[in-house]
Design brief:
single chain, alpha/beta, Rossmann fold, 6-stranded mixed sheet, 6 helices
C-alpha cells in the first residue's frame, strides 16, 4: 500500500459522485485515513492508501465462501425475497455481479427458476456479460460496492444492462448516524474503501433517475422512479 501523509483534507474526485473538492478528514487510524464527501455523504479511502490489486486478490483468496456453508447461504439468501418483492411480473433473468470464487447466490436464484449469469473481476472475468449484448431483469451485488474504486460509474454501467423495469439490488453495510466509527468492524477490512450511508444511496438513486428502497442495515434496491429523491442535488 503506497503511503502519503494524510492531511485534514484530501483533494480529488469523490469515488461516488465525482465531485472534486477538498474533502474533510472524517477519521484516521494507524493504517489509513478516511474522508467524507459533502455532496453525497460517502466516506472513503483515497487511492494512496488503497491496497494493490494483487494484495486485494490475495485477501479474497482467504475468504471461505463455501456453497455448502449454511451460514453463508443464509446470509446471502436474505436478499432473494427482497429482490423478488421488487421484480416486475415475468422477470426471469439475472446477473450476480462480483460473485467471488463460487457463484453461490447465482445458484440459489437458479434453484428458484431464474436464468442466471455470474461475473467477478478476479474469478469469473467474463467481460462479455457487461458489454450490453445481453440484458437482465435484475442485477445483484452482494458485499461488492464497498470494494469499488468508482462505485458511481459501476452502478451507472450496471443499470444500462437492465431491461425496462429492471432493478439493481445491493448489499453493503450502511454507515449509520451515531456509529462509533473507531469501533466499527466494517472498516477493518483493508479491501473496504467505500462506506455508504443511506443518504449516499439516496443521492445515487436521484442522480440516476431511480428510487432507493432499503431493508435492514445493509440492503438497497435501485428501482424505477425518482420522485422520493428529488431533494438530492445531482
Amino acid at each position: 500500500m503506497a503511503q502519503d501523509t494524510p492531511g485534514v483534507t484530501w483533494r480529488g474526485p469523490c469515488p461516488l459522485c465525482g465531485r472534486e473538492e477538498e474533502h474533510p478528514l472524517f477519521y484516521r487510524d494507524r493504517r489509513r485515513p478516511y474522508y467524507r464527501c459533502g455532496r453525497c455523504d460517502l466516506t472513503f479511502v483515497p487511492p494512496p492508501w488503497q491496497v494493490s490489486p494483487e494484495d486485494e486478490k490475495a485477501r479474497y483468496d482467504y475468504h471461505r465462501n463455501d456453497g455448502e456453508d449454511r451460514g453463508y447461504r443464509d446470509f446471502l439468501g436474505r436478499i432473494i425475497p427482497f429482490v423478488q418483492e421488487n421484480l416486475a411480473s415475468g422477470a426471469v433473468s439475472g446477473l450476480d455481479f462480483g460473485c467471488g470464487p463460487a457463484p453461490v447466490l447465482a445458484g440459489m436464484f437458479a434453484d428458484q427458476g431464474y436464468g442466471m449469469e455470474a461475473y467477478d473481476l478476479y474469478y469469473r472475468n467474463r467481460g462479455e456479460l457487461l458489454e450490453g449484448g445481453k440484458n437482465y431483469d435484475f442485477i445483484t451485488g452482494t458485499e461488492v460496492f464497498e470494494h469499488l474504486a468508482r462505485p458511481g460509474e459501476t452502478a451507472a454501467g450496471l443499470l444500462r444492462l437492465l431491461n425496462r423495469e429492471g432493478i439493481l439490488a445491493l448489499m453493503t453495510r450502511f454507515l449509520e448516524d451515531g456509529c462509533d466509527f473507531s469501533r466499527w468492524f466494517y472498516k477493518d477490512d483493508e479491501t473496504h474503501i467505500c462506506f455508504f450511508s443511506r443518504r449516499s444511496f439516496l443521492w445515487l438513486a436521484a442522480s440516476l433517475g431511480r428510487r432507493a428502497v432499503f431493508r435492514d442495515k445493509d440492503m438497497v434496491i435501485l428501482t424505477e422512479g425518482g420522485a422520493d429523491n428529488e431533494q438530492y442535488e445531482t
